[in-house]
Amino acid sequence: MGSTYSTNNNEGSRTSGLGDLPENCLARILACLDPPDICNLARINRVFRHASSADSVWEVKLPENYRFLAKKLMLYDGSFECLARKDIYVGLCCPVRFSSGTKEVWMDKRCGGICMLVSWKGMKIVGIDDRRYWTHIPTQQSRFHSIAYLQQIWWLQVEGDIEFKFPAGSYSLFFHIKLERPSNGRRCSSTTQKVHGWNIKPARFQFLVSNGQRVISESYLNEHGKWLNYHVGDFEVEDSYKPTKIKFSMTQIDCTHQKGGLALDCVFICSTRTQNMMATY
Questions:
Q1: I want to staple 252 with a disulfide (CB 3.0 to 4.6 A). Which of 113, 199, 203, 262 is the partner?
Q2: Residue 4 within any structural domain of the chain
Q3: Using CA atoms, how far apart are residues 87 and 125, in angstroms rounded to an integer?
Q4: Per the database record, which ranges form the F-box domain (predicted)?
């Protein structure tokens, strides 16, 4: 079916298209599309641009608790009747840091799913301040501009938590890690540079949600040289207006051998809709 048609009469022909539809009808069509497609169509002409800015188009794209999110992330404390829903959507897509800059949250512009990062600096890590075990490496490979690099240790224990009013839906939790030597140009002994110990016993990943959901998984870490989003598991949020608290951890506490060569960046939480649309954050 085409988007235009011609009408022939004695006075000649006229071509009509979607742009001839009433603006409210066009807005109802646009509301069925994904946000990137809406923005692309808004560039066609003035009619599409006006229709794409209608509150009815963006209201259905916003999370159920968008008013709370706007106050939390956009620091907006005025009347929502004075703020266009499109402007709220755009504002929520801008990353915001909190908890002394150790956590970051934003809304995925493609599907409206909430995403969150927890930096290693916001976690409790055994031995993190002892340079015999861990080093802190500045890098542009992290959104927090630094990673924690494990040189060698007997007892690996990384713990953290987050509390937030996640919109209702399904979410996935990942550890963003890498098995690789330091790459900041500093000289290190071969002992501290070597990736070792991860194929002897598996690392244990787990998280516990305040509504009782718990996930435990174990894995041998053997893929070297690239950043991985290690998928720990999924959880459900049922109430958008109730804070959800998540405790997560990564451990390898078998003291029969040392392990090292692990780079830790952050924990990544995202809606499963976002997970299906992206390979890495």
A1: 203
A2: no
A3: 39
A4: 15-61
